[in-house]
Amino acid sequence: MPELCRFFGIIIAMFYDDHNPPHFHARYGEYKVAVRIEDFAVLDGYLPPRALGLVMEWADMHKDELMADWRLARENRPPASIEPLK
Predict the structure, then answer these.
(1) Residue 67 pLDDT > 80, yes or no?
(2) SS3 for 51?
(3) Residue 21 and residue 86: Cα distance in Å, rounded?
């Protein structure tokens, strides 16, 4: 699973050739979540509220980049890194 970004102990990644809808995965310690890119709805999993808020803030800032990376990953091409939340 290619890592797109890492910040505050949160790892953002996408699977190659993953199922629709377009989404990304976030991990924070033992917690994992899948988030739909279109509207940032949680598809599966759980993150503590503070970590989830950081993920949502980051995703909102990088929605276009996430969609571009989704297209690359679907083609089994390496996605580009995305700048972390600071």
Answers:
(1) yes
(2) helix
(3) 28
